[in-house]
Hints:
By secondary structure, the chain is mostly helical.
Amino acid sequence: CILFCLGFTTQQSEVIVSALVKIMNTNLDTIYKDMVTKVQQEIALQQVMSHIGGVKKDMIILEKSEFSALRSENEKIKLELQQIKKQVMDEITKVRADNKLNLNLEKSRVKELHAQQDRALTQTDRKIDTEVADLKTMLESHKLDNIKYLAGSVFTCLTVALGFYRLWI
């Protein structure tokens, strides 16, 4: 009717209106094809939520299995660490014992060396004392000999002097 007023004939107006109705129906069909119903939307939402729930369960299972794996790995590492610690402590004890043994051996060697040195010093002291005593004895002997010779010389001189005295008197 409006088209008729704008200068179109009735037949032209009907063709234009029918073309517009077809275009509108086609557009609505295309729009309806892309659209979903509320029921379809709820079904899709339930499917997505179900899928998300499954993924959550899988994640929890993976997390627990990874946690268990980490826990077991941690236990293995703890055991290895304890074994290494025990080995280190055993080695430390062994080294300490070896060091104590070596130290005691060195102490005994030093004591033996000191004892040998003391024996050598004692022997040297004895030798020196013996030599000093021998020298004193020799000195005394020489003193006595000197005194004897001196006395003999004095008596000889006296005898000679008395002999001259007698001869002159």
